[in-house]
């Protein structure tokens, strides 16, 4: 069984310029002590401590839900049909959908 190689680096113990923060930033957080075993035992999940904030973050991710989302299907079509639609450039799948809607009498 192969071992997984993780690229884990240890945090800097002293300020190193050129890492995306200033010496002032480093000094502002450098007095943050490492956690003890007791700190870890007393830790609670973010969603438990800030349930409203966690819910607002979860809701705000991604696109808004659609009322009538499209469904992915597998459909076998002749290669020359696919080639003709693809030749029209991006949006070829939407064009096929529009033509099928019209043929089915579902025109918007």
* Element-level helix/strand string: HHHHHH
Q: What is the subunit organization of this protein?
A: single chain
Overall 3D form: elongated
Question: In terms of per-residue confidence, which ranges show pLDDT below 50 for 5 or more consecutive residues?
Answer: none
Helix content: 40-55%
Distance between the termini: 57 Å
Q: Helical element count?
A: 6
Q: Average pLDDT across residues?
A: 87
Write up what this structure looks like.
- Helices cover 44% and strands 0% of the residues.
- The chain contains 6 helices and no strands.
- The radius of gyration is 27 Å and the shape is elongated.
- The mean pLDDT is 87.
Write the layout of secondary structure elements.
Blueprint: H1 23-29, H2 37-42, H3 46-49, H4 51-59, H5 79-87, H6 92-103
What are the main properties of this structure?
BrnA antitoxin family protein; 6 helices; 108 residues; BrnA_antitoxin; mainly alpha
Report a brief summary of the structure.
It is built from six helices and no strands. It is mainly α and 108 residues long. Residues 1-25 are annotated as: Disordered.
């Amino acid at each position: 069984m192969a071992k997984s190689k993780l690229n884990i680096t240890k945090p800097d113990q002293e300020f190193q310029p050129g890492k995306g923060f200033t010496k002032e930033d480093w000094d502002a957080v450098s007095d943050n002590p490492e956690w003890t075993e007791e700190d870890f035992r007393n830790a609670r999940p973010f969603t438990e401590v800030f349930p409203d904030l966690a819910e607002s973050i979860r809701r705000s991710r991604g696109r808004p839900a659609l009322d009538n989302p499209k469904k992915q299907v597998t459909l076998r079509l002749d290669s020359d049909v696919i080639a003709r639609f693809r030749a029209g450039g991006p949006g070829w799948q939407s064009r096929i959908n529009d033509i099928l809607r019209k043929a089915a009498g579902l025109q918007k």
